[in-house]
Amino acid sequence: MTKSKPGRSGFSGYILYKLSLTVLIVLSVAVTANGSDSPSSYVRRPQPPKKLNKPVVLLISCDGFRFGYQFKTETPNIDLLISRGTEAKTGLIPVFPTMTFPNHYSIATGLYPASHGIIMNKFTDPVSGELFNRNLNPKWWLGEPLWVTAVNQGLMAATYFWPGADVHKGSWNCPKGFCKAPYNVSVPLEERVDTILNYFDLPEREIPDFMALYFDEPDIQGHEYGPDDPRVTEAVSKVDKMIGRIIMGLEKRKVFSDVHVILLGDHGMVTNCDKKVIYIDDLADWIKIPADWIQDYSPVLAMNPRWGKDVKNPGQKNAELVRKMNEALSSGKVANGEFLQVYLKENLPQRLHYSDSSRIPPIIGMVGEGLMVKQNRTYVQECSGTHGYDNMFFSMRSIFVGYGPRFRRGIKVPSFENVQVYNAVAEILGLRPAPNNGSSLFTRSLLLPFGETSQVE
Ligand SMILES: *[C@@H]1O[C@H](CO)[C@@H](O)[C@H](O)[C@H]1NC(C)=O
Ligand SMILES: *[C@@H]1O[C@H](CO)[C@@H](O)[C@H](O)[C@H]1NC(C)=O
Ligand SMILES: *[C@@H]1O[C@H](CO)[C@@H](O)[C@H](O)[C@H]1NC(C)=O
Ligand SMILES: [Zn+2]
């Protein structure tokens, strides 16, 4: 683990800055309250004795934990975090595309995929022709993830299977013992939890300030059987038991009231068993599209046409292709055509933030919720769960619960995008955030001001 503290002097300056900001906010509130609201609510209550004298954040991701799964079965441990913490009322909004790698890296960096570079789980860079398939070469992984921000500024971090955490960047070199990788599906969730808990047995200065823990459930069951299968319900129950194991372990070490636990997921899950499929070959009367122009069919149609060297203006050809495809799809003559809309990437709806990267292929098709796109009818019918669709769909949403001294108790906040998480963690840890797509104002609506803590027992 990197122990150099290059950012320490800047860090205390940052604390002072934060303190003066807090004073300013308290003063202005007291003034605007105009005597009607007693400022005594800002007088600090006596704090319970602390075991830990530094902020610690444990960030837990449950892959594919769709918002609403918590109502499938009894989840007493997740409920406990919710009742004593802050919850996103109707779930955490993933970034588009709602896939695992882009979203875990958006949570870690606060950046949209166009800016952090992991634009899909697997893709070919249209410029260089190189394939990204979860490679660890840092050139693919742009931006600054939380573990790098932490160690660059003299704090310590630990990661367990978090996608992208085994990439060496800045002062982070994925240290043995504090960076569990590569991902291994066979490692029991209990073992992952116990490794994290064991860090709390270290002397306080050696306890990682930031920890990121990854569970691959309920995603695995969700893909295999679809979100409505009883095996997904079992996986939700299992994840809840793991949260219980964490709570018990922290309580046993008398630090449960001092640790910030953030429980979230990367995306939701939807069934594609309705067998609604759009076949690219059905568009042949309008335009013939070779299979090798298509990098991905669904849930995101990603196309990079190869026009050949003699074509002078490929941009114009792409625009013509998009126009013809949409003409076919809206003709009423293509089965399920109304469920696919094709765009030049620069014309995608702004809210997707999915155009400003040379890695994004030039043509993107937005596929209807739960639908599939295939080249032709010669494929084996599959029925399973999937994700990756438009992040507007509620089925793609996941959960967010923040618990610990800086989170309000028993509060629900409106849903927000996961790019906001980076700033919140940086704020709790007193870190200077790297440039990102979250808003610093948002942090104030999620967290109690610095120096003021809720009483969490
Ligand atoms: C994955 O984990 C299992 C269970 O701990 C272990 O037996 C196996 O050797 C691991 N595989 C690799 C490639 O490390
Ligand atoms: C159907 O599409 C696949 C590619 O998805 C291709 O390999 C296969 O040859 C196609 N079959 C026909 C009959 O066109
Ligand atoms: C996201 O943040 C990066 C880094 O500050 C910036 O370059 C980019 O323009 C931002 N994207 C959006 C959509 O605001
Ligand atoms: Zn996932």
TrEMBL record:
Q: Coiled-coil segments, which residues?
A: none
Which UniProt keyword terms apply here? Hydrolase, Signal
Name the EC number(s): 3.6.1.9
Gene3D superfamilies the UniProt entry points to: 3.30.1360.180, Alkaline Phosphatase, subunit A
Root EC class: hydrolase
Q: Which residues cross the membrane?
A: none
Originating organism: Arabidopsis thaliana (Mouse-ear cress)
Q: Which domain of life is it from?
A: Eukaryota
Q: Which SUPFAM superfamilies does the record associate with it?
A: Alkaline phosphatase-like
GO MF annotations in UniProt:
hydrolase activity; nucleoside triphosphate diphosphatase activity
Q: Which InterPro entries match?
A: Alkaline_phosphatase_core_sf (IPR017850), Phosphodiest/P_Trfase (IPR002591)
Leader sequence segment: 1-35
Write the protein's name. Answer: Alkaline-phosphatase-like family protein
